[in-house]
Design brief:
The structure is a single chain. With about 210 residues, this protein is of the alpha/beta class. The chain has one domain: Vaccinia Virus protein VP39 (Rossmann fold), CATH 3.40.50. The chain is about 35% helix and about 30% strand. The strands form two sheets. The chain has a seven-stranded mixed β-sheet, sandwiched between helices. Helix 4 links the parallel strand 1 and strand 2. Helix 1 packs parallel to helix 5. The longest helix has 12 residues. The chain is globular, with a radius of gyration of 16 Å.
């Protein structure tokens, strides 16, 4: 799918996104925040990669973290901006590296409900390591293939015109290890019948 088409699709449902998450019973932002809560501190700098309407970032902002975020959808960013939860917002595509931030800029990186739009996670993990400080947390969600017979695997589907990728836990864990992250937590949950994994990794020095 062309990049412009993807932008348009995300912009189209931006205004209704928060309500849709409630209708679907999607509590990934709350669950991911809960996994991180004991390790974050007020005043720390958090980057939300694919911040969207700010559902995930809002929880960290309420906990006293300084939120920075980027997203490729102008409509999503405008909704997030109206919530007044971020120190800085940028329009940027997650897949384009390097991201527009200097090395070791953040204490925590969140990527919630985003990576199932990305086929290859390797570059994302490398960039996550670059922007995090030593000991920083990388918290994210991945959609998990329902059929484990072919694991490890990356499964692709087209749902409502979106290309959706499911990554087996083995694929995700290997990408984290290769980028020198230590796995702290992993939890399985469901959005409807769809399985998702929630991960918290920590940047280690090589």
């Amino acid at each position: 799918m062309a990049q412009t088409e993807q932008f348009n699709l995300h912009d189209t449902y931006a205004a209704d996104y928060d309500r849709q998450m409630q209708v679907y019973g999607c509590f990934l932002p709350e669950a991911l925040f809960g996994l991180c809560y004991g390790a974050v501190q007020p005043g720390q700098r958090l980057l939300d990669a694919g911040i969207g309407s700010g559902l995930s970032a809002m929880l960290f902002a309420k906990a006293g973290l300084q939120v920075y975020g980027f997203d490729f959808s102008p409509a999503m960013l405008e909704i997030c901006r109206m919530k007044d939860i971020a120190v800085d917002l940028k329009q940027h595509d997650l897949r384009q590296t390097p991201w527009p931030y200097p090395p070791a800029s953040f204490d925590c990186l969140v990527c919630c409900g985003v990576l199932h739009f990305i086929a290859d996670l390797e570059a994302i993990f490398v960039e996550a390591r670059r922007v995090l400080r030593s000991g920083g947390l990388f918290a994210f969600t991945t959609k998990t293939p329902p059929d484990k017979q072919a694991s490890p695997m990356v499964d692709q589907q087209t749902i409502d015109n979106f290309e959706i990728y499911s990554h087996s836990p083995e694929i995700v864990a290997a990408a984290g290890t290769q980028a020198a992250f230590e796995q702290l937590k992993r939890m399985r949950c469901f959005v409807g019948a769809d399985p998702f994994d929630l991960w918290v990794l920590q940047k280690n020095e090589r």
